[in-house]
Write the structure tokens for this entry.
Amino acid sequence: MNFLRGVVNTVVKPSIRWLAKRSSVVDNVVGRVRRGLQSVRFAAARLITRQSEKTVLFMSFGGRSISDSPKEIAREMMANPQFDDWEFIWALTGPAFAKHGGMRGNQGIADATNYDDVLSSRIRIVLYEGGDFYRALAKARYWVTNFRTPEGVRPGKGKTYIQTWHGAPIKRLGADITVEKAYPTKKRAALIDWYKREAAKWSILVSQSDYLTEKLWSAFAIADLPRQPMVLTEGTPRNVPLCAVTESKRNSLRERLGISEGKRVALYAPTFRDNQHTSKIGHTHSLALDLHELRRELGDEWVVLLRVHYLVNNSIDVSLFTGFVIDVGDYEDINDLYIASDVLVSDYSSSIVDYTVTGKPIIIYAYDLDEYEQAMRGFYIESATFPGPIVRSQAELVNALRTFEEVDQQWSTRRAEFASTMAPKDDENTARRVVAALFPNH
């Protein structure tokens, strides 16, 4: 049996994935089979599992981490005595499951250094897509996620699916993408169908702003659905930690990250590129920086935190730049990186929205602006309205970093205007308001 399982995992599954990435027909068949199996597993779990009205299942980025708005909602609920008799479950994929003690049978969170509050003792962990996961889906009255659930799983009667989404989009999504091959493995019609199937599951959308609601409504073609989710516009809970930052918290995080005292810190967090994708790997990222030259120019004063997008599957070797570049791609909660940094360098990522909550400067490193706008996805907003200066070359980036205090002053009004539109309600009480609205009787 172990031999057969090994053959399936090492030969059969990789071969199917290889074929699916090269053939839309195979990809479609594989997708249908996968959705069918997921549906059957969930249906079977519901037959043998009684639903609990006081159980919540949390997921973040498809099980990749304990983070984002689901984390802050969980934190708020667990700190409230009215939820003392509730059960909280978190679904994690293999690597995150192992990191948090799941492989050792731990029912709590093993990495307590990152969870020094009620989260460390109240959460039960299940393996995403494992048997316990489907039973947790069946048991929990409430599902809270910032991304999506398995395609073949539909909540059905009696479930409440709370979608928090993971960022206000700057680049176009889903049905709003007009370039046929913007997504390397899916035709546009199939992509739109995928978005609509996901949105059809939502009971409630927790929205950061009217802007976000409008863009998700369009991207997910929600107006075409027979049933539309309720919208709760009270801000995004994930940004609560950014609203009450102490100097000791910032210093503690910088020490944990290995940042030398007195250094200025730039967080470089670019989004993924649809034209950087390989069939065997998926999304990749080619770093548009000469790190040798960057260290020569800035190494005496600066440290760079490198955070590639979570969809990027290749690694970037920064071993030659110890002390100057720190790879934080696997760091679980990006809020810590926002707090530890002095400036954000990004591009068309939603991080430029959330970072405005910190009040710190943002630099838009848009080396491929024209190509991205015209040949890839395009944008929902005019680039002229971005909350920081647009630099097109490494030399311009270096100059902006050297003068970042001036950049901060020059762009402070624009950042505030941007935040007032994109994150108007984000404050230290957002999670409390959201939980009170989601669970009015508790």
Summary: DSSP finds 16 helices and 15 strands in the chain. Confidence is low (pLDDT under 50) at residues 103-116, 275-285. The CA atoms of residues 171 and 305 lie 23 Å apart. The domain at 21-239 is CATH 3.40.50.11820 (Rossmann fold).
